[in-house]
Write a structure and sequence with these properties.
The protein is an alpha+beta fold. 13% of the residues lie in helices and 31% in strands. InterPro entries: FAH (IPR051121), Fumarylacetoacetase-like_C (IPR011234), Fumarylacetoacetase_C_sf (IPR036663). It comes from Saccharopolyspora oryzae.
């Protein structure tokens, strides 16, 4: 099953196009793309047995973030060994966790306004929680996942690393800095949800490519560690970390400029596409 947000409405994407869920379910499920995760078991049961109508063709540009209003957004740092090495940091013994604020979420295609001249790219697999998880073991963790999508953890490095205390969440939460999509794909659609190719290109040049099987902390382990501290709620998002190849890890460093096009993909899910445009410059106060 491939779930999307088409012009603000919950749809299923099939071989023939988009099927409006509210219409197809005769109102059993509403149009809100985020609300469906609160009724995930019921929705799965309906979708598995429903005789869906033919889908309608749609414009990819009309797709929004497939989960536009999660209660919580978790992001994991240094979760690929290559990225830790290029960052000059030790491998973590616990998942480093920060957030991307919800207002940074965006759909899979569109403009990315650059608030400064040190904006970096970070391709990521994103987990969507389908069932509340509290003190869940890694062995049981996949049962709490609704599906997977693709994300970008765009980062304004100057704001992120301003001394004396880095501001990861602020530096990664400018408007449009968390595009996700184009769809949420349920696990049964993927040959191996634990090992997907993921990558990113800038102006057609491949800058990142890895497999999610190389994560230091796998999806089940992330759910285990996070749910040991606080409940993971239906519709929550987990950005699982980025592989090596970010601009700040290059010599010389490379950052995004107006006119650049970034394409991010994950095997079996789809791709994101952003075009960089000038934004409102940000300032940082001196201590």
């Amino acid at each position: 099953m491939r779930i999307a947000n088409l012009s603000g409405r919950l749809v299923l994407v099939t071989d023939t196009g988009a099927v409006d869920v509210e219409e197809a379910s005769n109102g059993t499920f509403g149009p809100d793309p985020s609300a469906v995760y609160r009724d995930w078991p019921e929705f799965l049961a309906w979708a598995g047995s429903a005789a869906l109508p033919a889908g309608k063709p749609f414009d990819q540009a009309a797709l929004g973030a497939p989960v536009p209003e999660p209660a919580q957004v978790f992001a994991i740092g240094l979760n690929y060994r290559g990225h830790a090495i290029e960052s000059g940091l030790d491998f973590p013994v616990e998942p480093p966790v920060f957030t991307k604020f919800r207002s940074s979420l965006a759909g899979p295609c569109g403009d990315l306004a650059l608030p400064g001249d040190t904006v970096d790219w970070e391709a990521e697999l994103v987990v969507v929680i389908g069932r509340e998880a509290r003190h869940v073991s890694a062995e049981d963790a996949w049962q709490h996942v609704a599906g997977l999508t693709v994300g970008q953890d765009y980062s304004e490095r100057t704001r992120q690393l301003v001394p004396p205390a880095p501001q990861f969440s602020l530096g990664k939460s400018f408007p449009g800095f968390a595009p996700i999509g184009p769809v949420v794909v349920t696990l049964d659609e993927l040959d191996d949800p634990a090992d997907l190719e993921i990558g990113c290109s800038v102006n057609g040049e491949q800058v990142q490519k890895a497999r999610t099987g190389d994560l230091i902390f796998s999806v089940p382990v992330l759910i285990e560690r996070l749910s040991a501290v606080l409940p993971l709620l239906p519709g929550d998002l987990i950005f699982t970390g980025t592989p090596s190849g970010v601009g700040s890890g290059r010599n010389p460093q490379r950052f995004l400029s107006a006119g650049d096009e970034i394409v991010t993909w994950a095997e079996g899910i789809g791709e994101l596409r952003q075009r960089c445009v000038p934004g409102t410059p940000h300032t940082t106060a001196s201590a």
